[in-house]
Automatic annotation (TrEMBL), chain A:
Annotated keywords: ATP-binding, Nucleotide-binding, Transport
SMART domains (UniProt xref): AAA (SM00382)
Protein name in the entry: ABC transporter ATP-binding protein
Keyword presence, ATP-binding: yes
CDD domains the UniProt entry points to: ABC_MJ0796_LolCDE_FtsE
One MF term in the entry's GO annotations: ATP binding
Entry annotated with the keyword tRNA-binding: no
Pfam families tied to this protein: ABC_tran (PF00005)
GO CC aspect terms: membrane protein complex; plasma membrane
Organism lineage: Bacteria, Bacillati, Actinomycetota, Actinomycetes, Kitasatosporales
From TrEMBL, chain B:
Membrane disposition: Multi-pass membrane protein
Keyword Plastid (UniProt): no
Record's protein name: ABC transporter permease
Entry's Gene Ontology molecular function annotations: transmembrane transporter activity
Length: 225, 493
């Protein structure tokens, strides 16, 4: 469960101080499925960074299951990321020189999983996203949808508590978009994840039971019955 | 994962790896060639010095130069010939045996030098220059003019009343000058001295009992020139010596044309108990300078010349090339190496910059900074090793090429001083025969240049390759360690 209290984030861009987040309070219960939307530059990505432990707030607290990520050391934060948080990025962010299976394995490396087990788990994860036949393909040899599936397998292979997706369909055409959304939905249900997704896509937002909208650094949560 | 990732990166980014590696390779190859050529230079210089000194000699002791005293003329050679009548065909011959450089030390100095701390062995030797002049010397004949009357008179002003008129015709000299060097060897100790740089190729060397025997060893090229063979005799200033051996120098010129026992040389030159040079072997080659100053301090009137001193007097193309290799070559290879390291570093850094999102992603996945950095450094080190292998191959090829071509270098020795034996005032050179100075004063040799590769050179190259990789890795690793995991979310490449 996430508990955000009075989270602000300021950074300087040239001479200007940008208030990316201006006092965000947000509670995300375990197993929730939250869509974050809002205009470009509104603070969506900044919020995702806070949730993922990729950056620290200027003030306020970001608690994940009672631990304030804002106060953790870099090493502990790295550990939290490696164990509990899975990421899916807009542009897939696969390692171009590694094949599908190896890419998935990179998520298990910081956990100290032995090579043989790593390979096995990676293959299984790829099978669960429908890429069982493409273990040895390089990212450049796969379509965008396939690449994103590899990325989803990579995010989930370590069985995290939280799955954070940053515009996971932003680089995909419509047919691919639905396919990926289906995969993500299935995974969320199967793994009992807390699934937080940033998106521009209003079609996706409309389907979501809970939508958080960020405008000018402040958040409003809309619940649909 | 480390190795899989490393292997994949190197294989799939072959071009980038090759650029970094070949930059390093160039620098390393240059270092190998330069260092092997300069060790070839050292060997060449060593050969030159050896040919003077013989093997194992660390320094020589000679008499300190003193300006010749007034009226000291009896040391300079004079030749006297009687003019003969025109119809006489008789050849006259005379030879002068001179001590080279006219400076001698007492034989006791050898013992004294031998007693100095750090001296392992000291052996004396006497270098002689023999100048032999032989030929015909005829008087001019007076020929009277036909027109003038008077009785025929030969030569000179006559006692007659009528003044004869005419001129002297046909007088003159037809002679040959033969100059050669003789070295008086201490036959009881043949381990040191000039003869050690030659191999006895025919016959034998001296026996230790032959301290005063009339035997000689001839230098092979001199023997060839004079058509001397084993068993022949040579006459030096009236004394006949039997040739018992022919010596061929290992390289370059021989130190002397003939070698005879020291005592005989002293008798010939009328220099009883005198030596020109003491050859010294030090107990420890690291202590040569200390031994040198000890000898100079404790035995007055001596000049000590070490191999290093002598090496400074080597001139000619060898010296030029040697300077080139040690100065220009050294700086050039340092410059190229630094440039190669820098380029490798910057290329690695820019490669990291191009992979910001990749490394950011890994950090977001929970890779520790150290693991990412290690990956970058690992790639750079492998690149460096690759460069090292390439560079060693290139360098070996270069060095072999030098050895294969083996350009000939000229070495001139000693004209710049070498202990100052010739420094004794202008009249020192005036002695009749063009001043035979110290034997080292005029010596030209030809030495073929090789570029021997030592294991340490290859070791150095490997070290440089690893260092190059580490430097490149340090650049890249530093850049990688500063990446934030949030860089994974960057949208622009």
């Amino acid at each position: 469960m996430y508990e955000l209290r009075g989270v602000t984030k300021q950074y300087r861009r040239g001479k200007e101080t940008v208030h990316a987040l201006a006092g965000v309070d947000l509670t995300i219960p375990d197993g929730d499925r939250l869509v974050i939307q809002g205009p470009t530059g509104g603070g969506k990505s900044t919020l995702l960074q806070m949730l993922g432990g990729l950056d620290r707030p200027t003030s306020g607290s970001v608690e994940l299951d009672g631990t304030d990520l804002a106060k953790l050391s870099e090493a502990k934060l790295t550990k939290v990321r490696s164990e509990s948080i899975g990421f899916v990025f807009q542009s897939f962010n696969l390692i171009p020189t590694l094949n599908a299976q190896e890419n998935v394995e990179t998520a298990l490396v910081p956990l100290g999983v032995k090579a043989a087990e790593r390979r096995e788990r990676a293959a299984e994860a790829l099978k669960s996203v429908g890429l069982g036949e493409r273990l040895t393909h390089l990212p450049s040899e796969m379509s965008g949808g396939q690449q994103q599936r590899v990325a989803i397998a990579r995010a989930l292979v370590k069985q995290p508590k939280v799955l954070l997706a940053d515009e996971p369909t932003g680089n995909l055409d419509e047919s691919m978009r639905d396919e990926i959304m289906d995969v993500l939905e299935t995974m969320w249900k199967e793994h009992g994840l807390t699934f937080i997704m940033v998106t521009h896509d209003s079609a996706i937002a409309k389907k979501a039971p809970r939508v958080a909208t960020i405008r000018k650094g402040t958040i409003t949560v809309t619940e649909r019955a | 994962m480390f190795f899989t990732y490393l292997r994949r990166e190197l294989r799939r980014r072959r071009k980038a790896a090759l650029v970094v590696a070949s930059g390093l390779a160039l620098g390393i190859a240059l270092v190998i060639v330069v260092s092997s050529v300069s060790s070839g230079m050292k060997q060449a210089q060593g050969k030159v010095l050896e040919s003077l000194y013989g093997l194992g000699t660390d320094m020589t002791v000679t008499k300190a130069a003193t300006p010749p005293e007034e009226g000291d003329g009896d040391e300079r050679p004079r030749f006297r010939f009687d003019a003969q009548d025109g119809d006489s065909d008789e050849e006259q011959s005379t030879d002068r045996v001179m001590v080279q450089g006219f400076q001698t030390l007492a034989s006791s100095t050898v013992t004294e030098v031998g007693k100095q701390d750090g001296v392992s062995e000291a052996v004396g030797g006497l270098s002689l220059n023999v100048v032999k002049v032989d030929g015909q010397f005829t008087r001019g004949e007076f020929q009277q003019d036909q027109n003038s009357g008077g009785s025929e008179q030969q030569g000179g002003p006559g006692g007659g009343t009528g003044q004869p008129q005419g001129r002297v015709q046909g007088g003159g000299a037809d002679f040959e000058v033969n100059s050669y060097t003789v070295y008086g060897t201490d036959v009881t100790n043949l381990d040191l001295g000039p003869l050690t740089s030659s191999k006895i190729t025919k016959g034998r060397t001296f026996k230790s009992t032959e301290t005063d025997a009339k035997v000689a060893v001839a230098d092979s090229s001199y023997a060839k020139e004079k058509e001397l063979a084993l068993g022949d005799t040579v006459t030096i200033s009236g004394t006949k010596f039997e040739i018992v051996g022919i010596a061929t120098p290992d390289s370059g010129d021989a130190a002397a044309n003939l070698y005879i026992p020291l005592k005989q040389a002293q008798t010939l030159a009328d220099s009883k108990d005198k030596v020109t040079t003491v050859y010294v072997k030090a107990t420890d080659s690291q202590q040569i300078d200390a031994v040198k100053s000890a000898i100079q301090k404790n035995i007055s009137g001596t000049t000590v010349t070490t191999s290093a001193d002598l090496a400074d007097t080597v001139s000619g193309s060898l010296s030029t090339a040697s300077n080139l290799a040690s100065n220009v070559g050294k700086w050039l290879s340092i410059a190229v190496l630094v440039a190669a390291f820098l380029v490798a570093g910057l290329l690695t850094m820019s490669a990291v910059s191009r992979r910001v999102r990749e490394f950011g992603t890994l950090k977001a996945l929970g890779w520790k900074s150290g693991r990412v950095t290690r990956q970058v450094v690992g790639e750079a080190v492998v690149n460096g090793l690759l460069g090292g292998v390439l560079g060693i191959a290139l360098g070996l090829a270069g060095a072999y090429a030098v050895t294969a071509v083996s350009p000939t270098l000229q070495a001139q020795l000693g004209s710049t001083g070498g202990g100052g034996a010739m420094g004794g005032g202008p009249s020192g050179m005036g002695g009749g025969m063009g001043g035979p100075g110290r034997q080292t004063a005029s010596k030209a040799l030809e030495v073929a240049l090789t570029a021997p590769i030592s294991l340490s050179t290859v070791g150095l190259a490997v070290g440089l390759a690893v260092a190059g990789g580490l430097i490149a890795g340090a650049f890249g690793g530093w850049r990688a360690s500063r990446l934030r995991p949030a860089d994974a979310l960057r949208r622009v490449e």
